[in-house]
Design brief:
This protein is an all-beta fold. It has one domain. It is built from no helices and five strands. It has strands at 4-6, 13-22, 28-35, 50-54, 61-65. The strands form two sheets. A three-stranded antiparallel β-sheet has the order 1-2-3, with no helix packed on it. A two-stranded antiparallel sheet has the order 4-5. Strand 1 and strand 2 form a beta hairpin. The radius of gyration is 13 Å and the shape is globular.
Length: 67
């Protein structure tokens, strides 16, 4: 089951996804993003060292590094 969160502003449910992105220098980084549907790349838990927050203006969830 994919990790999900509900927007406080809109009430919609969003699911956490990840994918590897290759940069120009050849390095690979992991991108985390929320989508409204469970698709390929959905992950079951928040990665260690991250927390979920919400954009106040749009209500979209964000994944941020913990301070």
């Amino acid at each position: 089951m994919a990790f999900s969160t509900v927007s406080k502003k809109s009430g919609k449910t969003y699911y956490l996804h990840s994918r590897l992105q290759k940069l120009r220098g050849g390095h690979e980084v992991t991108l985390y993003f929320f989508g409204s549907e469970v698709k390929e790349g959905a992950i079951n838990a928040i990665p260690e060292g991250y927390e979920v927050s919400e954009n106040e203006r749009t209500g979209l969830p964000l994944l941020k590094k913990k301070k």
